[in-house]
Amino acid sequence: MRAFLFPGQGSQYVGMADAIPDRSEALSLFARASEILRMDLWKLVQSGEEEVLVRTENAQPALFVTEMAWFYALARRGVMCDMAAGHSLGEFTALCAANVFSFEDGVSLVRRRGEIMANAVSKTPGSMVALVGMNIDDVNTVLGAAQSAGIVEIANFNAPDQAVLSGEESAMQRVIVEASALGHGRVIKLRVGAPFHSSLMAQGSVEFETALRAVPFSDPRFPVVNNVAGVIETAPGRIKENLVLQFRSPVQWIQTMKTFEDMGSNQYLEVGPRTVLSALARKANSRNTVQAVEAGSWG
Of residues 34, 88, 166, 265, which has the active-site annotation? Predict the structure, then answer.
């Protein structure tokens, strides 16, 4: 059984739509999104300035549309999935691919989500740091030491040896010092400007809940594993609730991969830019067959 994995914010880069086949169909999709966003999204994605693309309010719709263009291109080639999941922002792509909401509603939702998150930067300054090559005991040691400097929480459980912490800037600087002092693993400050997936985003989740109320949701046409609990939810109302909780809750990617395995999936295709989720799929089980669209030939 095959699962599609849709990456989240941080995977974007200028030119990320280059490898998408069927250029005319991709351009048409980007044109539909550009009309909704009132900006030339294709130009931003393909030849814009990096500092503009990485802005949260731009990166999220840019990734969403790029991933949906890949999804449709794969479907035209008969490459489909039995189930799917997305990492943070990528969960919206997974749900749209599963026909939970329309492409147009998806573009509007992720733009609003990005705007709310961007606004949180000025109200709640903070950052995120990835700890790679460190086990949960290491992470808890760093967390305990850094909490005296401010609010800091686990934002992503990505793999047994990889977690992401999120919090106030003072606490995150302490995280870098404490994690570096362990003498092993890597400490990577992420290219984000707010403490996503933490309690500091609580107000943003309330604003996003308001935006979600106006959007009709349907039952998914294939199972989608959610970020909040790493399990499958099929009721539209509960899917909405989970997207609100996702705003301030850690991404349970370890459990997501376990759920896939329990369902019998051993084939994974990362649908979007870069190969971040492909690497995590290989870590989850060395027997998995893993591929990324950017590393394949789809012409």
Answer: 88
